[in-house]
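Sanity check. The docking grid for MD6 depends on where the pocket ends up, so I'm generating a full predicted complex first rather than guessing from homology. Inputs follow.
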Amino acid sequence: MARIERIGEGATVLRGFAIEDAARLFDAVCAIAAVAPFRRMVTPGGFEMSVQMTNCGALGWITDRKGYRYERRDPETGENWPPMPAVFLELGKRASAEAGFAGFFPDSCLINRYEAGTLLSLHQDRNERDFGAPIVSFSLGLAAVFLFGGAERSHRPRRIPLESGDVVIWGGASRLAFHGVAPLSASVHPLTGDCRINLTLRKAL
Ligand code: MD6
Ligand code: FE
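Predicted complex below; grid placement will be based on this.
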């Protein structure tokens, strides 16, 4: 059974929740990346992000010079994003229910790939239509330090170590909290090799 850790109002870490399914999740990520490759997207300000991204599900989160948004098609291939694997849906629903958000039905999964030195600067997830739905975030492979701040950017973030199999569920009063990921340390993990994979399941529409 996963150990439940409350990290804020509406924000929960389920330690080791996905450990037994980590290999299945990673295999599904590899199959998705074979069709919709990882890429570094450009922010509206013109900076290339250090984290590499792809998506699956009906909608995918993208950024380019025109802004942050969800799109039905992968701009690199012109095709729909690959479908959401059943194992993502099933685990996402179970994890969110365990954290007190019953009835979560994600239509989008953003997949992030971190290598040594990759970071994600503080941001809010606010391109979704309905902030009533939580975000469910799975960590696979190398450990990372998740930065969990407050409602304002100036609020100094807490540092929360995340390991392979940990799940963060994020909603309610924390839904718009600033958060990010500290630069990844170089290491090797038996599942993913030299990288960390993060899946964030969202209800975009
Ligand atoms: C990551 N996660 O862990 C980046 N956003 O790689 C996120 O940006 C995130 O983990 C919203 C809720 C949970 C998250
Ligand atoms: Fe985020």
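Relevant for the grid: The chain has a mean pLDDT of 97.
Also worth noting: Residues 123, 125, 179 surround fe (iii) ion (ligand 2) (CB under 6 Å).
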